[in-house]
From TrEMBL:
MF annotations from Gene Ontology: branched-chain-amino-acid transaminase activity
Alphabetical GO biological process terms: amino acid biosynthetic process; carboxylic acid biosynthetic process
Source organism: Anaerosolibacter carboniphilus
Enzyme class label: transferase
Protein name from the UniProt record: Branched-chain amino acid aminotransferase
Record's keyword terms, sorted: Aminotransferase, Pyridoxal phosphate, Transferase
Pfam families linked: Aminotran_4 (PF01063)
Length: 278
């Protein structure tokens, strides 16, 4: 595996390494599960949710992560401090489930947060026919990621929306996807998609705002009926989708999209102010 770690240090099984020491990354060959956590002002956002989801990913594959939550949190605090408290994303990666000693890595990764102009204009997306073998488990699939990136680059897209074998929309290649019609929001059912941490918080925000979310299948031929769409994720928050293929939405200025985006920003700020590194 190619080294992903940036900045000065990463942690492997509790030991702090210089990022130039990439031999550990090169040794990763077995199946790996991962999480990506955003750090803002020294606070890892929604870290409890990420811990829970990573453990669920392992369980779905009949694995168990040996490290305790306290160990993971302690190592993350050390990593953030060693790298001088950057506002970037941290990646957890657990591998070696078939070995006597697991490998648990924590490291900062290249983090790209869309500029305000991107939110104001919305993004272009494409359809990509593929589905995850185990939708609820966050597993590394480098080959699929490469193929999706190549198609997005060719068509000038920011994200690819995955379509299953029956023609139904599931999720984004690195996000969850929501559609807006009237005063309601639609998204794929839980069993069909990776239940992203941001997705979960968006559902809670919608509940607080009294916005109805309908979890049902949307066929690729039905997008012409949708007024708006947005993607959600660790680095993008709530990002309006301007178009999918040839279909153009009115996402950017749709009142529902605007209310959800504002509600999520407030949710992040509330969490940041109330939480510190444990």
């Amino acid at each position: 595996m190619k080294r992903e770690a940036v900045l000065d240090f990463y942690i492997a099984n509790g030991v702090l390494y210089d990022t130039e020491e990439d031999h550990i990354f090169q040794s990763i060959q077995s199946q790996s599960i991962y999480e990506v956590i955003r750090v803002m002002d020294k606070v890892p956002l929604y870290v409890e949710d990420h811990l829970e989801r990573m453990r669920k990913s392992a369980e779905l594959l009949d694995y168990r992560i040996h490290k305790s939550d306290q160990e993971i949190m302690g190592e993350m605090a050390a990593l953030i401090e060693a790298n001088k408290f950057p506002n970037m994303n941290i990646k957890w990666l657990c591998s070696g489930f078939d070995k006597e000693e697991q490998l648990f890595l924590q490291y900062f990764v290249e983090s790209h947060y869309p500029e305000r102009q991107v939110y104001e204009n919305g993004i272009h997306t494409i359809f990509f026919h593929s589905e995850r073998e185990n939708p609820n488990a966050k597993v590394m699939n480098l080959d699929l990621r490469k193929r999706i990136n190549e198609k997005m680059s060719l068509e000038g897209a920011f994200e690819a929306i995955l379509i299953n074998q029956d023609g139904y929309i599931t999720e984004g290649s690195r996000s969850n996807i929501f559609f807006v019609k009237g005063d309601q929001v639609y998204t794929a059912p839980p069993g069909e998609v990776l239940l992203g941490v941001t997705r979960t918080r968006i559902m809670e925000v919608c509940k607080k705002l009294d916005i109805k979310v309908i979890e049902q299948h949307i066929h690729e031929t039905e997008i012409s009926q949708m007024e708006g769409a947005f993607m959600t994720g660790t680095s993008v928050n709530v990002l309006p989708i301007r178009s999918t293929g040839d279909h153009v939405y009115a996402s950017v200025h749709h009142s529902i999209t605007e209310r959800i985006a504002q509600g999520y920003e407030e949710d992040m700020e509330t969490y940041r102010k109330s939480c510190g590194i444990c």
